[in-house]
Amino acid sequence: MVFQMRACSAVIAAALLVAGCSPPESPCPPQDIGLWRVEGEAEVYVGDELFIYINGGAEIYHEYGFEQVAVQRYRRGDDSVSAEIYTMEDDAFGIYSFARSSNGQAVDLGNGATAADYYLHFWSGPDLVVITAENEFADRSDAILEIATAIAGCRKSGGITPELIDRLPVEGLVAGSEVYFTGRLAFMNTVRPAALLFAAFEDGASAAYESGESIAVLRFNDEAAALQSLRQARQLCEASGGIVSEAEEDGAVILETGGYLISAGVSENLITLRANREEP
Fold first, then answer.
1. Is the separation of the CB atoms in 216 and 264 below 8 Å?
2. How would you classify residue 168: left for phi > 0, otherwise alpha for psi between -120 and 50, otherwise beta?
3. Where are the alpha helices (DSSP H) in 73-211?
4. pLDDT per residue over 74-132, tens digit each?
């Protein structure tokens, strides 16, 4: 009987392939994972429906090209874990780099993963996956990793880390602090004093450094656009009561504003910013 059932399944699968169809795929997120049982149907929010799901934080996801999120909860007795799968228009590294914990621990999962306390973020192709323990229990970290691993196995693979990340200096960089952004809102949440001055960029990358310095690289359409943005930054700095000067060594523009010293230098279509708090 078992042999007949297996043979029948093989015949059905072969027939589907001959007909130009594929066998039904396993559901993703999975229905059950180990001892964890799916709780209800997945909630799906598309486009502007994200504002219903996230109160006050949806804008940043849209800036990164949000398409939809599927939310599935799992239960094991009194313990509960949620899985959120955010699908973006392009690779999800940007929103992953923004959303992950800067104090987390790197995990070998998907294209990159970070675990911190009661949650885990990973990205794979166009997806950002967030696994969150919704209550405290003894094996919380193991459970989060188990569910994350199961979901990673059924998501699209691939994806490329933006090349602007490689433009950031390596020496002294705080691991996991790199952020790739495509709009001003994310920039404001990484290097706010500089974001108040610079605009009209295509994309950018920033990171924190052990020295306390923050460095950002902004990319523009061309060198003329980069120079225009720097001119406008000088004007905004002076208009807000800041001080503008030039460094003797490399000719970079120094902007003193909001308690920060910001060095800005142009190279082709890039502006490199170095932000340090002013000493009292």
1. no
2. beta
3. 93-99, 140-152, 184-188, 192-195
4. 999 999 999 999 999 999 999 999 999 988 999 999 999 999 989 999 999 999 999 99
